[in-house]
UniProtKB/TrEMBL annotation, chain A:
This is maleylacetoacetate isomerase. SUPFAM superfamilies: GST C-terminal domain-like (SSF47616), Thioredoxin-like (SSF52833). It comes from Pan troglodytes. Keywords: Phenylalanine catabolism, Tyrosine catabolism. Pathway: Amino-acid degradation; L-phenylalanine degradation; acetoacetate and fumarate from L-phenylalanine: step 5/6. The gene is GSTZ1.
UniProtKB/TrEMBL annotation, chain B:
NCBIfam families: maiA. The lineage of its organism: Eukaryota, Metazoa, Chordata, Craniata, Vertebrata. Gene3D superfamilies: 1.20.1050.10, Glutaredoxin. The gene is GSTZ1. It comes from Pan paniscus. GO terms for molecular function: glutathione transferase activity; maleylacetoacetate isomerase activity. Belongs to the GST superfamily. Zeta family. GO terms for biological process: glutathione metabolic process; L-phenylalanine catabolic process; L-tyrosine catabolic process. Its main location: cytoplasm. It catalyses: 4-maleylacetoacetate = 4-fumarylacetoacetate; RX + glutathione = an S-substituted glutathione + a halide anion + H(+). This is Maleylacetoacetate isomerase.
Length: 161, 216
């Protein structure tokens, strides 16, 4: 698909971020990234798919390049606000400390990077208080810090933390 | 105690709805359909009632076991976990990864780029090309991936969630007049799947809301 990420692990290469994460979950099951209860798992996957399938693909680089330059920002903002309008509503019934209940799940792994995209595209986050507060809580966790775009091997010097 | 059959909110032509219809048929789950017409009345998915059910204002949504789930793959994975036979995902984690990879490629990488709400944002004269590009980019990758995963079907010789995504996407490709000659593996797997009963009963041409002129 000529996209990142791809993970070479256990002798295979997997792409599509959620397929990778589900594989990691099935082969390295602790700590859990999906709850045990099927209904809560459904909520986690629903939120993850909403972001990974319903928002991000519409505002990624290869799609934006097909939109006229002067329209690109609006296009990206629309993709994000449509999705966040829905997500903010959904979180009213699923969220505890994090997106689904009080444990970090795959849904949270999708939320934080999407909020970062929203900030990059100057989306006003005021209408999304639940998304914003969950995002804040997640960003202080170590896994979200070490993996942050500003701390990667390929982070440009001027953006490095 | 939850009474009554599951309820599927579906549009006959929605490829995402079709995926779930196939899953329900394969697992022998009897359900009711509430048709949501994406075009009539300005789009019934925008009604207040439906929005409360699915804030993304999209089909499908499934009411089952006292909850409502949307996002077709989340629905299918829930059905798989609660009604595990027949399997829609293999037991082996590496094969499961292949199934999810292909499913996500289609459901996240192709379909969202050519669905109705996105196409409406593209200038009318560009819409067909836009949809065709979305599909061919994805099918170029998928054809390659299938070289290493496919047997009779997308992953090995059993029907999996990947196949439930493939057939509706090929139907979309045909609707958008995409030339399928460069995709012989996709085409032959699609043919084999279409003869299976679950793919037939769930077909857009056999739904409660199929318009008369399109009915099989």
């Amino acid at each position: 698909m000529k996209q990142v990420p791809a993970l070479k692990i256990d002798g295979i290469t997997i792409h599509q971020s959620l397929a990778i994460i589900e594989y990691l979950e099935e082969t390295r099951p602790t700590p859990r990234l999906l709850p045990q209860d099927p209904k809560k798992r459904a909520s986690v996957r629903m939120i993850s798919d909403l972001i990974a399938g319903g928002i991000q693909p519409l505002q990624n680089l290869s799609v934006l390049k097909q939109v006229r330059e002067e329209m690109q920002l609006t296009w990206a903002q629309n993709a994000i606000t449509s999705g966040f309008n829905a997500l903010e509503q959904i979180l009213q019934s699923t969220a505890g400390i994090y997106c689904v209940g009080d444990e970090v799940t795959m849904a949270d792994l999708c939320l934080v990077p999407q909020v970062a995209n929203a900030e990059r595209f100057k989306v006003d986050l005021t209408p999304y208080p639940t998304i914003s507060s969950i995002n804040k809580r997640l960003l202080v966790l170590e896994a979200f810090q070490v993996s942050h775009p500003c701390r990667q091997p390929d982070t440009p010097t001027e953006l490095r933390a | 105690m939850q009474a009554g059959k599951p309820i599927l909110y579906s549009y006959f032509r929605s490829s995402c709805s079709w995926r779930v219809r196939i899953a329900l048929a394969l697992k022998g789950i009897d359900y009711e359909t509430v048709p949501i017409n994406l075009i009539k009345d300005g789009g019934q998915q925008f009604s207040k009632d439906f929005q409360a059910l699915n804030p993304m204002k999209q089909v499908p949504a499934l009411k089952i076991d006292g909850i409502t789930i949307h996002q077709s793959l989340a629905i299918i994975e829930y059905l798989e976990e609660t009604r595990p036979t027949p399997r829609l995902l293999p037991q082996d984690p590496k094969k499961r990864a292949s199934v999810r990879m292909i499913s996500d490629l289609i459901a996240g990488g192709i379909q969202p780029l050519q669905n109705l709400s996105v196409l409406k944002q593209v200038r009318e004269e560009m819409q067909l090309t836009w949809a065709q590009n979305a599909i061919t980019s994805g099918f170029n990758a998928l054809e390659q991936i299938l070289q290493s995963t496919a047997g009779i079907y997308c992953v090995g010789d059993e029907v999996t969630m990947a196949d439930l995504c493939l057939v509706p996407q090929v139907a979309n490709a045909e609707r958008f007049k995409v030339d399928l000659t460069p995709y012989p593996t996709i085409s032959s797997i699609n043919k084999r799947l279409l003869v299976l009963e679950a793919f037939q009963v769930s077909h857009p041409c056999r739904q409660p809301d199929t318009p008369t002129e399109l009915r099989a």
